[in-house]
Amino acid sequence: MSSFGDRLRSHPLVFEPVPPSARLGRERLASQVDAVVQTVLANPRIDAINVPELVDENHEGRPYYRSGDVRGYARRLAEATGRETVVNKVVAHLPDRDALVRWSMESVAAGIAHAILVGGSSRYIPYPGPPVIEADRICAPIFGAARGRIGNIAIPQRTGEAHRMVAKTQAGCAFFTTQIVFDAGPVRTTLTEYASLCAEARIRPVPVLLSLAPLADEADIEFIRWLGADIPERVEREVLAGGTPAEAATRSIELAVELYREVGGGADGPAVPLGANVEQVSVRHLPHAARMAEEFARILPARA
After folding, report:
1. How far is 34 from 2, CA to CA, in rounded Å?
2. What global pTM score does this model have?
3. Domains of the chain with CATH codes
4. Percent of the chain topping pLDDT 90
């Protein structure tokens, strides 16, 4: 059976559930795990489960972890579904380089072969942990020895992002997930530039998984914007014109499919392998996220 790393260039479909709160009781945790497990088992096209680490920062950049035991959660999902997991880690908050090495080796020893390394939220704060590019260089051989891959997060709207993506690719990043996207224009522009820069550097572009999430109401839109994602006003109008939350979610799923196809763009699209990372965003929207994952399972090319 091929691994997630092997399938990265074959239009991968990844599901990103909301990680459990650090304050969640045992019974509610079990219920949340079971709901995600049933969602994944119902969709054989899902290649991996992407488990984020939710961290808030104060004005000094000190972290407050809202998610509980992310690696433990990932292991439970992997054991129950038979799918590989990808664990996110905000490397900026680690105390030093050695702590990152220990975290990586512990993760691999626990059966977690893939990780997404994330930086701090502000470029003005001197974080104790290593920058993402340095973290890539440290972690790539550790995870690679376990046939795993490391990834990073791309923010298409950010100026100079394609250049950052090339530097991270050269440092060992094997794939990117994007910030949640709702506008195809900046994504196509960034990926086209990334592909061109890779050609100049004579390196192969790595796969980019577009992060997509269903929206059901104004609260969702406000929350997504608080996370830093850009939602064009036209998208907001189209989604909220749906009426009920279920109708709005359906329309947002349709828009996500349109965006994915527009980014791919046929023969004139960016020469970058694409995949989809479907995000749950909130516990209450698991059914909507499951529907979005089902729709992408339908439109993505079938795997032999």
Report:
1. 26
2. 0.93
3. 4-299 (3.20.20.220)
4. 66
